[in-house]
User: Fold this.
Amino acid sequence: MYLNNLDIAPVDLKDFFDRFPCMVSIKKLLDGFVLEYPGLLQELRDSIEKGTVQEIKDSAHKLKGVLINLSIIRGYYLALDLEKNSEELNKKEALAKVDEIKEELDKIDGFLEEQHELFR
Assistant:
């Protein structure tokens, strides 16, 4: 899927490598993120279900920071959109944004598998 389309990959490896020039370590970081992001998304969902607008913004901001540090650019922009627009969104719309973020993050595991040659 991504082998010939690195420009549409869920992770900007060039950006990541420019900041952290070790592919093996990048893979370890991304593998760790794959295990951790469901908890971050649940925290965001919980803030939407029970929290205030500020709690939603804080959860989206936290996720956004993690995503940009891992060069997960599209995910970053989706989290930024949720953070910026949390006051205007109703619960259903906000949860749909979380689902959109999840769809993007779900691509990472497959991407890592398909690009295993890059991480040797």
